[in-house]
Design goal:
Length: 373
Amino acid sequence: MNFSNEDKSIIALNLVPHLGYGQFQTLINSFGSASNILEVPENELLKVPGISQKLAKGISEIKNTNNAEKEITDAERIGARVLTYKNKDYPEPLKNLSDYPPVIYVLGSLLKKDFFSVAIVGTRKPTPYGISAASFFAAEFARSGIACISGLARGIDTEVHKSCIKEKGRTIAVLGNGLNKHYPPENKKLEEEITKNGALISEFPLNSQPDKENFPRRNRIIAAMSLATLVIEADIKSGSLITAKHALDQGKDIFAVPGPIFSKYSKGTNSLIKSGAHLAESADDIIDEINPFKKLLKEKKIFIKKECEKSFAFGNSEQKILNFLENELNGTSIDNITQKLDIPSKETASSLLGLELKGLVRSLPGKIYIKTQ
């Protein structure tokens, strides 16, 4: 992968501790490019609003792109890609964020179809009910071809990723640490499984620790990468509600699974529902509200239907009947089919039975037959 000097400069600046997006953007606005920023004397950096002496010193210490080149080499060593916001492969949804990350690290694959994705988040200490709900929803989405995005944390996040993998669905984990750190440590093997049919994403340099302040920050990416956010079990002060707030600020739909009124882990989800979030009892509740999901499922059903039809060998009468029923939206009688198509009644009955067994026709009361949709 080729990196321009500007890309390397952006990566270098991303390595400066505590340089936030706002400060990064202010510097870009002041000096025109990341490359120019690295050429500016420390005393000039101090003139920029919001740039402290500590930050100015940190930037001055990265006066060339050697650190960036090492970061790129280290990323390639573990099979990860480093994408700056100027790279064509940088995820489109993140570009819509006012505080988009200048750099993201990707281990695994990001595909165009990952546009059809839902964020599922919740407590790190779920009840058996929460674990069952997380597994249930993730499995339903996976079977529908909808990717699940979560944060790889203990509890609900972990169940979501595991359930997707079990159903051979796509799942993406957004981390609050660098890719060289494994948090929580017991999920190291799960990370490997995720990269086989999904991706690990982080905006933090490779060796960044899972610091407490990183997790609220990563939640905006979880929300941005998905079309909707589902919260399963959350205390009233849960970080999951931060993800929901980010989603709301981004104009996304929020869904919550209702919980027992006596459980503190239902306080957050029930509060969301009271405040206007959609109540979700199944994946269909979410799919039916999000137009891209509905369109995806409709196209998927049409594709499966066509593939099934291709795989069957039709007799001449079966094909005639199937074509005829295409225009009989409310169905029609066996006598009408026999008469209109001039087919012997025994052959009509035999052909209809064959089409029923293939799942292409179904019978209604009164010997009415209709083509399956």
